[in-house]
Amino acid sequence: MLAGAATVPILLFAYHLSRKYLQDYVCYYFYHLLLSCLLALMGKPFPVLTTGLIHLKGLQADQFFLLFDRLLAKPLWIASLFFLLKCIAAMAGKKPSRPFIAGYFIFFGGYLILAWLFMIQFFQTGQTSAHAETFSRLNYYFETLAAMSIYAFGIIRSFGIRDRLRQSGLRTFCLIGFMAKAFFWILIFLSFSFTLPFLVGVSLPLPALIYLAAFLKKSSPLSLMPSENTASLESFYAKFNITPREREIIGLICSGRGNQAIANHLFISIHTVKRHVNQIYQKVRVRNRVQLANAVRAFLDLPHSPGTS
Prior knowledge:
The chain has helices spanning 2-21, 24-43, 46-49, 51-57, 61-91, 98-125, 130-158, 164-190, 195-201, 205-219, 230-239, 244-254, 259-266, 270-284, 289-299.
């Protein structure tokens, strides 16, 4: 119950950010949190909820939960980790290459197959081999280290980013995530009960999420326009003869959204978005999104955008 109370506001907050900014990395992080929280919640109340199903199917408890872990939990965890990787790559302004993605799924696919083989062996013999015990014992630490490795990759990758704002944003975000995982790991070692680390663990994404919200507010050229600038915005729209639809698109562009995200948000085709964007460029006499955002900021007497997004 406490875990659910902790995860619901975190997920709602992440969903709000993903819908407000429509940046790829925010959406990827929301998917990562959604799967992670789902796994965390299933780890605690799920055994209670499935007791009747165990008796119905004639399985023993350890057999059923082994099936649950290997057939459902581990694939979800691999997917969750992949979304975290895509989030960090998108924050760095890069997309994982196809060979990298193939290598990721080959590696974790092999890990999953190994887990399935130990599960099959257990069902056939009714006993756990020494190798299977070692695998199970090291399994949790491997999963924690895998997430920490992705955050460490993001920290290292940030040094190659020229944009200082994006560089510091990615580095700080990954550092917070890395420290949260390390803290959770230490808590597991120091605690005799899993309940306390579990309750703390489901709340650990919150610091990174709060920082992400602050970073989005700071990095979006016109993410949160103060209400006192409303009149100035109307003057800007009137000066350049901006239509109501073009006003919406200008606001979305200045909030950092791409053409596809704008199309999804306004429920129009990407071809229509491009046509409106070109018309806006012609009216305001700019060539790209950054120039448009800076033109709006200059008109409102706000500081210019520190870099592209």
